[in-house]
Specification:
Elements lengths: L7 H22 L17 H20 L10 H4 L24 H21 L2 H34 L35 E4 L2 E5 L3 H6 L15 E5 L2 E4 L5 H9 L11 H10 L7 E4 L2 E6 L2 E4 L11 H11 L6 H8 L27 E2 L5 E2 L8 E7 L25 E4 L16 E3 L8 E2 L3 E3 L1
Parallel strand pairs: 10-13
Antiparallel strand pairs: 1-4, 2-3, 4-14, 5-6, 6-7, 8-9, 10-11, 11-12
Amino acid sequence: MPLDHSDARLAALTDRFQTTRANSMTLAGAFSHEDWMLQSMEDASPIKWNLAHTSWFFETFVLAIHKPGYKPFDAAYNYLFNSYYQQIGVMHPRAMRGALSRPSAAEIIAYRAHVDGAVIDLLDTAEARALDVIAPLVALGCVHEEQHQELMLTDVKHALSLNPVAPAIYDAGGPFSDTASATASETELPPARERAWKAFDGGVVEIGADTAAYAADPNARDFAFDNEGPRHAAFLSPFMLAARPVTNGEYKEFIDAGGYRTPSLWLADGWAMVEAGNWTAPLYWRERGDGLAEYTLSGEREIDWSAPVWHLSFYEAAAYAEFTGYRLPTEAEWEHASETVDERDGRFLSHAAPDGPRAAPATAAATGAGGETALRQMFGDVWEWTASPYVAYPGFRAPAGAIGEYNGKFMSSQMVLRGGSCFTPPGHARRTYRNFFPPSARWQAAGLRLARDS
């Protein structure tokens, strides 16, 4: 059924657009305009660039095509803030985004306001037939911006971690002070060798999102990225999944046992990264006095040994799994297992601790209604590396045009992560969601959960 201006779905989309755009500014508002300029490596982008790029996305894929007579805020922005859409045109070099002191922060804020007003006006005035085309693009722009909200935090965290004064951005009076906070179980965690597992029978299962149905009627179905489908059958051998993610304390056992000095535990490319980068611990761990600390967005803190380990590369996750004698789950195993878990049951960005986004401490194994081990923290807290390369599902075809460059062209040399993290906006992740990064990436909020054959 086509959308019209009396449709509650259109009102919900308008509200989501406005909320998403406001959330980006709230996140950015915790940082100074000097922080907005930081770019610590080519893989990361400044906050200011993220704020502009997400506006460029709406301007390019919604307004320029569907709003009659629309004039761009500034013609130069198509060059400055295009990320990787080759069909749109040439772009400013990624490694040089931090050199863009102009346009100023004030000009980018004005740009966002200009785009916001134009999108709202378009949604208010477009004819019903046009709305059916515009609405899915606005929804895509919202989830795209949510991805960049997470990137704003992980990218600036990397930059601030290089500052010798270890700046603290959040505290008890910060922007997360009025949000709920998950609490740890009072039950002490068992030793790693007594890790709890949940068993799955395997067989033929269905995984992936029904993207064909979404494409046929996006107004009536939940959003899904194109790379989440098509839904298809996968065969799984019987397997077991650890009840919770690997903790900092468990990972320290790997370090203390010489894990970073034992090449037999590592994939060849991973060992090369260990040697070239002098890796000895997760990215933000550092020695302080008689102990270890980690850098967080609330400054250096004592490591919580019961919390999930994070800021690991795929190579580190795979080496730890090899150290334990187990393995990483495939993404099909992970998704099938996640059907036993509520997608909302985890710590996402809006459930971060008052002193900034942090994963909740792991809890002792619990039992479900049938007396079996229940899986914990599969959604939120930390992304979980899988053993699966990021490749197309059977029958996948990227959409036509520049918008088809969103996901499909990156299906090479990347690994899949599942579940979301405490940097992920609530409602963004789902059981079919496929995040992906190069196996060497460490600055994302990524940890691991072990799997084993049964």
